[in-house]
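Standup notes
- HV: blocked on the assembly model, inputs below
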Amino acid sequence: MITEIKGLHHVTSMARDAAANNQFWTKTLGLRRVKQTVNFDEPSVYHLYYGDEFGTPGTVMTHFPFPHIGRGRQGSGEVGVTAFSVPVGSLGFWEDRLSKAGVTELKRDETFGQKRLSFVAPEGDPLALVETANDLRLPWTGNGIGADHAIRGFHSAGLRLRDGGATRELLGFMGYQPFDSSGGIERLIRPDGNGADLIDIETMPDLGRGQLGAGSVHHIAFAVENRAAQLAVRKALMDTGFNVTPVIDRDYFWAIYFRTPGGVLFEIATNEPGFDRDEDTAHLGEVLKLPSQHEHLRSRLEATLQPLEA
Ligand code: ZN
């Protein structure tokens, strides 16, 4: 079994409108934009990162806003709901705030003994806020959201699969343990993780395959401390028969990717070097940062990428 994985690192979704995406994740949900860069494989498209003050692994939601893509269609083989942890007693505040912001499909319920507010982001992302006791992660505050309400980071990611068996086995190999099951959802936990420790598996045998588009999760990334841990995980996965990419330098972390049996794209990302690699923590995300291989495109990109509000 792999012991190096410590919970989620980031979740990356597709989007369409960069300015609206930026507005929703910073102004409405109150996360900090910790990096403004481009998709390294498609540099005409932004890669926007939102998280806590530092972009701590386990707090970072990222987006690729492709200006012309259509809406995704939810289905199997993908992440359904991405959930964030908020303080106990804060859901009334959020329900009021999100409904005033025009967010739709707001729904309150309780799962696994925790109060939850589900909703759909403007671009179609199924999201939830879950009241979590004793989440000691420090939040980013501002935009009218104080520490008694602010998002702490990821609570869980929910995988929607036609057959959850092989993915459950894989997650077990990755250090996750059964936590509980309820309403057709199996919850797994990575004990001693970084706080973003939960994965839910929802098995839906008759569900059609999801279609990637705006509002769809592109991949989820799991955190390892450093490059040595990543190489150990890569070897263990390859020895088990997974087809894993070589290590790729993403400037703020190193990444490897592999497709899981249920169809979801997994990444393993390092906690090093972090988002302060090329700008001070006090000024993260304020200006467009480009990887060295795309620096020659700067004037064109600055002219064509949609301007973002601070
Ligand atoms: Zn990623």
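- HV (later): unblocked. The longest helix spans residues 227-239. The pocket of zinc ion is lined by residues 10, 12, 219, 221, 255, 267 (CB under 6 Å).
- Next: hand off to the docking folks.
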